[in-house]
Amino acid sequence: MTVLPVAHSWLNTGTTGAISGDLDSSREMSRQWQGFMTARLVLGFVLVTLQIALYSTGASHNKGQIAISAAYLAGTLASKFYIQPRPLGQSFNRVWGALVGFDLLTFSALQMLQSNSASISTINYTPLFALPVLVASVLGSMRLALGTAAGITVLMLGGSIWSYLQSPLDSAPYFVQPALSGVGYFAIAWLSNQLASRLTTEGLRARQNQLAANIQRQVNELVIESLPDGVLIVDERGCVHAANPAARLLLGSQQALHAAVFYLKEEVGWIALLNLTRLSFGTGKSHEEDVTIRHGHHGPRRVHARTRLAAPQGTSGESLCVMFLQDQRELEARMRTEKLAGMGRLSTAVAHEIRNPLAAITQANALLEEDVNDPKLKRLTAMVSQNAKRLEKIVNDILNVSRVHPYDPSYLIPALPLDTTVHRICSDWASQSGSQGRLTIHGDDKTTDVRFDIEHLRRVLVNLLDNAHRYTQELPDAIQVVSSPVDAQYATISVWSDAPPMDPSVERHLFEPFFSSDSRSSGLGLFICRELCERHNASLAYQRTMRNARGHPTEGNEFVVTLHRTNASDNAQMAETSALPWQPPLY
Question: 515: closest CA among 346, 305, 397, 338?
Fold first, then answer.
């Protein structure tokens, strides 16, 4: 997949990382914890301020309430900064005691001192018990919340019993008020816990949905970026908000390759796409058309464009047009591949049928040659025999190309001296093609041997040299062949030429059958070369590299054949079987 240097994701939405559910849950817990701690801290300041104000005005003469309020304020400060945010759990524990239990003791002590004091003002502290009930309900479990409410009710009833024993008058005011307050605290505990549980469940579901949406968005972006067809998102003004790498390559300008947002009207070669977009917006329907994108440095590119209108988005109701671009050359290449594949199957069937009459011709010519003594007729039978062998080799090549044969290490191919064989093949090619002036052969290692059929190696190198010759000029060092060992196991043959860089669309399909940028070529050459290499457990690769040509570094195209070197065991085995006649493999 081609990665383009665009500053944003495909949809320009900024970050694309998925949100962790555990991290969000921890943040939500910390937020609730800090909220309750802040409320307790504010309540502590209010209590201290209130008690000091009452004492200074003479409305209260109880210094114990001031001390208890100050202790509560100090305790809330300590709990806020020294207790880590965490759930209270299912039962009473140390954290519960430090938070809820401390509040219960403080408010109970204030209420008891208020009841026993002879102050002018009477303050009821029982509403403050709602805070520990809420803390236990939200940060704890239902059991803990109801237990806290029950404890508060018991404390209030205990205080009422003590007050009744001090002045045994009418019992109704002493017990009805604590009972109603207890019922209210139980209701608060139950409702708060239910609401907190529901909010937690909804928050978890929302985080899961958000996580699933993020994953789906990332998958969609990955699929769109990997599509071989181009995808553009265009608005009514012709502004391209998003484009996948294939579309940017088809548009063919530096602005399209690097700009996050661009306009179709900025390039003359994109006017046809802009007109098709305006037609779709004007009619409100989808359209498709074959258009040509023209750029001076790339040449014309024929693409099949299809538009689809998206639903209006946002408060402005602006519509977007999704445009799909398909390279016509690749489409035609696939169609040509399918046609030639059918022709290949037909050629294989014909090759099978040719074998039988060819064998009969060869046998009849051999019988005729035994009875012929005339030198002229001998020459004719030799010509028939030679061409029959040539025809048999062609038939075998056709059948071999139509099949896939894995490398068989048990089959022994004679070891070839690498540098000597490469030098001989390249020299013969240069003599036949008249390219002695532009070909340079490097390699002087006489100890490296490889396992490769010499005729197959000749076919691979000649094909690579022909391709290099087609795209280079008559200059020294324009074509360089280098053979060298890599390590004890591998050796390489590289064919380098100072040809211009390939078009990215051609490079993507370089080794595919029937695909060629030259209309006069069948597109089978590199495919057959790679097949021949794979049958000998070798590999063929392409790369863009620098070489020293004509005294200065020059960039060019390089095809590298990586072969297996022979080892001592292979040489010993070959020595044992050297007396046997070598035959080509039977596929």
Answer: 338
